[in-house]
Design a protein that fits this description.
Layout (H helix, E strand, L loop, with lengths): L2 H9 L4 E5 L5 H10 L3 E5 L3 H8 L10 H9 L3 E4 L10 E4 L14 H11 L7 E4 L7 H11 L10 E4 L18 E5 L2 H12 L5 E3 L3 H32 L3 H8 L23 H11 L5 H11 L1 H15 L8 E5 L14 H11 L3 E5 L5 E4 L2 E4 L5 H6 L2 E4 L8 H7 L3 E3 L12 E3 L1
Parallel strand pairs: 1-2, 1-4, 2-3, 4-5, 5-6, 7-8, 9-10, 9-13, 13-14, 14-15
Antiparallel strand pairs: 6-7, 11-12
Helix pairs in contact: 1-7, 5-6, 8-10, 8-11, 12-13
The structure holds nicotinamide-adenine-dinucleotide.
């Protein structure tokens, strides 16, 4: 099929879209294409996930089970583990994980496995888009040669582009449709075709000049967040030393209508993206003999926060004549951010481990996370009752879920250490803020 042929199929929504990797990124994307009338085949190596989806059960909070049921029963979404069906797809979007190795180097094994599965079935006229976050150059230097191993040539026989995913799980205001989508092709024609595809499901597509540029856009966005969060974490520590309230300072600073954007401190960085992605850029730059100093400093500053929080807890208990050992500490919130159940890289787990190592007796409450395992110790979310709050020596707020009644916590707790300003605007003798 020619580029024109695929263009026409996209415009008429007759193109079959394959999504490889049905996680936080792939599943909402699959649902978005299916809801716009495309036929979508979803590929995943996790047979249990595929089976659940095929029977109409979603594992992602942002995509409801009724939505999955509707698109599956309507014949618009077919989840499968059979990669042979890739050859029937006109456009294939790769959304597999890009974690770090223990050494903090990029782990591209998932991308490579997905590319190899596609390569054996690649046919003329297909469009392949990589969405997994990765370092600049991956699509051109690594993905393209794998596909060209088939004898077909990118930009002539098939089309290849990168488009960063910007999904913000749990965000009720910005979803796929109203978040502008950046795309860049390994050739201008590849980029244009990818822009046409995404143009069918999002309000606005931003075409950049190359796949490398599109990869770099994502890393700028997430490095920007990591660096600014690190900066405000350091400001929080400065404020504590100076005896001023960092939250009051940020609230006042953000009244400036230009040139300032608020970031908030906390117990550390969490989630699958912000703590991980800048390392992809750092790794690439180090391979080019370029020292990524901001990234390294931000990473060191952010990863020191759990220690800092555990230290502040020890100070507070000390002020109450208690040691960390044998103190009862009630943790409020373990997910990496409010309103989600995701605990990947959650700094709450690091803080909890530090306190457990010092002999604290921990309990926790998180309406989204029923159980956590910390170094083999399994903890279950406990009901938040006046008795459970009173029983603890200190309540430690690590994630500010909106459904938790913080005034109730403050009413019954001996001491509350709030690392998220969850109890904003409340002033009580038993409340300390980060
Ligand atoms: N989660 C986010 O908020 C977010 C936001 C922006 C970008 N990203 C990026 O998107 C990518 C995917 O992240 P995610 O959060 O969706 O991951 P995830 O772990 O939720 O989902 C990935 C899915 O891919 C499947 N998978 C693994 N190897 C596969 C293979 N070879 N073939 C088919 N399926 C395979 C897994 O079983 C899993 O279901 C990552 O690069 C991530 O950095 C994530």
């Amino acid at each position: 099929m020619s580029k024109k042929g695929l263009s026409a199929k996209i415009a008429s929504r007759k193109a079959v879209v394959g999504i490889v990797g049905l996680g936080y990124v792939g599943l909402p994307l699959a649902a978005a294409f299916a809801q716009k009338g495309f036929r979508v085949v979803g590929f995943d190596v996790d047979a249990a996930k595929v089976k659940a989806l095929a029977s109409g059960r979603s594992h992602i909070a942002d995509v409801s089970s009724p939505t999955i049921r509707e698109i599956v029963s309507g014949g618009r979404f077919a989840p499968t583990t059979q990669f042979s069906r890739l050859s029937a797809c006109d456009a294939i979007i790769i959304c597999v994980p890009t974690p770090l190795r223990k050494t903090k180097d990029p782990d591209l094994t998932f991308i490579l496995a997905a590319c190899e599965a596609i390569m054996g079935r690649l046919r003329k006229g297909q469009l392949i888009v990589l969405e997994s976050t990765t370092y600049p150059g991956t699509t051109r230097e690594m993905v393209r040669p794998v596909f060209e191993g088939s004898g077909l040539k990118a930009g002539r026989d098939f089309h290849l582009a990168f488009s960063p995913e910007r999904v913000d799980p749990g965000n009720k205001t910005y979803g796929i449709e109203n978040t502008p989508k950046v795309v860049g092709g390994v050739t201008p024609a590849c980029g244009a075709l990818a822009a046409e595809l995404y143009g069918e499901i999002v309000d606005s597509v931003i075409e950049v000049s190359s796949a490398d540029s599109a990869e770099m856009v994502k890393l700028l966005e997430n490095t920007f967040r990591a660096v600014n969060i690190a900066m405000v974490n350091e400001i929080a520590r400065m404020c504590h030393r100076l005896g001023v309230d960092v939250w009051e300072i940020i609230d006042a600073a953000k009244t400036k209508p230009f040139g300032f954007m608020p970031f908030y401190p906390g117990p550390g960085l969490g989630g699958h993206c912000i703590p991980v992605d800048p390392n992809y850029l750092a790794w690439k730059m180090k391979s080019l003999n370029f020292e990524p100093r901001f990234i390294d400093l931000a990473s060191a500053t952010n990863s020191r926060m759990p220690d800092y929080v555990a230290g502040r807890v020890a100070e507070l208990l000390n002020g109450m004549g208690k040691a960390v050992r044998a103190s009862r500490i009630l943790i409020l919130g373990v997910a990496y951010k409010p309103g989600v159940k995701d605990i990947r890289e959650s700094p709450a787990l690091d803080v909890m481990k530090l306190l457990l190592d010092q002999g604290a007796r921990l309990s926790y409450h998180d309406p989204f996370v029923p159980r956590v395992s910390i170094e083999g110790a399994v903890l279950r979310s406990a009901a938040l009752t006046p008795a459970s709050i009173k029983r603890s020596d200190l309540a430690l707020i690590l994630t500010a879920h909106a459904s938790v009644d913080y005034s109730r916590v403050l009413k019954h707790a001996k001491m509350v250490f709030d690392t998220r300003n969850a109890a904003a605007g409340i002033s009580r003798r038993n409340l300390r803020r980060l």
